[in-house]
Specification:
The chain is an alpha+beta fold. Helix content is about 30%, strand content about 25%. The protein has a domain of about 100 residues: Subtilisin inhibitor-like (Subtilisin Inhibitor, 2-Layer Sandwich).
């Protein structure tokens, strides 16, 4: 019985090692696991809609590598890097300009649908926390 088990294990290992490398490669997806669409309006020269792919990095975002790095930095277990400003927040009444943004897609396996503006101090801070995912603004 032990001999039969040893032969079975040996035969299985030999069969697996004979599988071509290309068959192994197809088992690992090359599709980005984190895909976002970033639409920016009212910021000037950075206006537009960009695709941002991370893990692996790609898309049409003007600085995809830095944007993915920033998202990795602000993603902390148990928190949502795209969360809105809490309703009970006390925010300075300053205006950061007319820029708005909308981010949709998937990040860390979760759906994203977040809007951004620069209407007060809290929103400006939230926007700035995602630069370079969102463009740096001079206002």
């Amino acid at each position: 019985m032990l001999r039969r088990l040893a032969l079975t294990v040996t035969a299985s290992a030999a069969a697996l090692s004979a599988v071509p490398v290309t068959a192994h490669a197809s088992a690992f997806p090359t599709t980005p696991t984190d895909r976002l669409t970033v639409t920016v309006k009212g910021s000037g020269s950075s206006d537009g809609t960009y695709r941002l792919n991370c893990h692996p990095t790609g898309g049409t975002h003007p600085d995809a590598a830095a944007a993915c790095d920033r998202l990795d930095e602000v993603t902390v277990y148990g928190t949502n890097p795209f969360a809105p400003v809490p309703k009970d927040s006390m925010c300075t009444m300053q205006y950061g300009g007319p820029a708005t943004a909308h981010i949709t897609g998937t990040w860390q396996g979760r759906p994203v649908d977040a809007t951004y503006d620069r209407s007060n101090g809290c929103e400006i801070g939230r926007w700035n926390a995602l630069v370079p995912v969102l463009p740096a603004t001079s206002a």
